[in-house]
Amino acid sequence: MALAPRRAFAAAVITLPLALVPHDRPAPWAWPLPTQRVERAFDAPRTEYGPGHRGVDLPGRPGELVRAVDAGTVTFAGQVGGVMTVTVEHGTERSTYQPVDPTVSVGDAVDRGAPLGTLLPRHPSCATTCLNLGRLRGSEYLDPAERLRSGGRFRLISPDGPPPEPPGWNGSGLVNLLGGPITSAFGMRVHPVTGERKLHDGVDIGAACGTPVPALAAGRVSRSEYRGAYGEQVEIVHDDGRATSYSHLSRRTARVGDEVAAGDIVGAVGTTGRSTGCHLHLMLLVDGNPVDPLTARG
């Protein structure tokens, strides 16, 4: 049965008067690569030299242009521990980029989005080519993903002509959510553990345990708990009343009541609950009923 038309899952498209833009909130950073996705999340070290992941990894291709996340001044362009690195100072904070073959020099002033160099392969924290983006305030490492958010649910459009059509659910890049394949579709199936024929109420996305799981859209976390066969689960209620849930997680990083933006990390892939291996079980609920995330429309 076709779903009734609903408000699009994507951000609302309206003209925002400039007077309503808050001036005490830092502007979001521009994405330094065309692929606007975090492949590995920030994991703050407990001590200065302790283990952790001191930035976020963004997937890319060798030779891609790496761009400045904001206007600033280049303060370093060279090797750090054998890895080519560029550092840009933005007032009280600095952004770092590696591995990058720099086309800028120390002292250069750069604009937001200006090329800093080209992406090199073989960063030590990535299985494939990626950019490690760092954020520092003094000697403190901060989460770059907090500055890469969209900055709200509105975007400015030209007042000339009709507004663009907002994308539906299928425009969200679901299959590439974790860079993995759909390993089990929505619908009736024989359960691989119990042997029962029953509804598979979501889609399974194959990914290695520990892979960060991003929220598909902005919303409020309504559930974050261990839930029987679903294992560790996070559920998010979105602005149009629909909900998504993320199950079999190895850990949950979002708590009930948290407001999350699209792309925020809510947990990590696991195999908790009734599961035969590492994967994400993604559900879409409409009026409390599960529907197929791959065919639902906005």
From TrEMBL:
SUPFAM superfamilies: Duplicated hybrid motif. It comes from the Bacteria. Residues 52-122, 199-293 form the M23ase beta-sheet core domain. InterPro entries: Cell_wall_metabolism_enzyme (IPR050570), Dup_hybrid_motif (IPR011055), M23ase_b-sheet_dom (IPR016047). GO terms for molecular function: metalloendopeptidase activity. Keywords: Signal. This is M23ase beta-sheet core domain-containing protein. It comes from Aeromicrobium phragmitis.
